[in-house]
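EI: anyone free to look at a 182-residue chain?
SC: sure, send it
EI:
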Amino acid sequence: MFDAAEALALVERFDVQGDELGLKSKELIVSLLRHSVSPFSREQFNPGHITCTALIFSPDRQQVLLMWHHRFQQWLLPGGHVERFDAALADTARREAREETNVCLDDDAGGILVGMDVHGIPPKKKEPYHLHHDLVFAMRASSDEIAVTEEAPRVAWCNLAALASYDVPANIMRAAYRAGSR
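SC: here you go
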């Protein structure tokens, strides 16, 4: 499983200057990583757990990949829970993006931390209401090819200027603009 100290160092290095909501999320994630027994376990509901999201740019870096989330009924970025076999947190985001959208990523896609957000997840089946402490990693696709899946019944490439028309959450817009300015 992941080393909380490595994740903590990554989060602490992240610059949220001028982003009050990002600062709130950073403080909550730092607290989770410092004080939680199992911050990467999807079975830890209180105070929640780490999840990872992929902010994927098209090969020409002009568009961002969005998916229609089947459960939340809104446009979001692909992402999800950390698995024991993921080598790094950015690998979690990469794996989830492939599973949810069939996107092909550059081998050197890396995964640079460009955002973080702590948000509530409604109860479902045996899971109570809990928090996702989400880390957003930017990477680039190697082709424009994407496909719908059971988890993402709609997928789309969206120009940065059109993100607001997809009614994406503010944290996605902040991460996309932060990544686009690099």
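EI: Strands lie at 49-57, 63-69, 74-76, 79-81, 112-121, 130-140, 155-159.
SC: 👍
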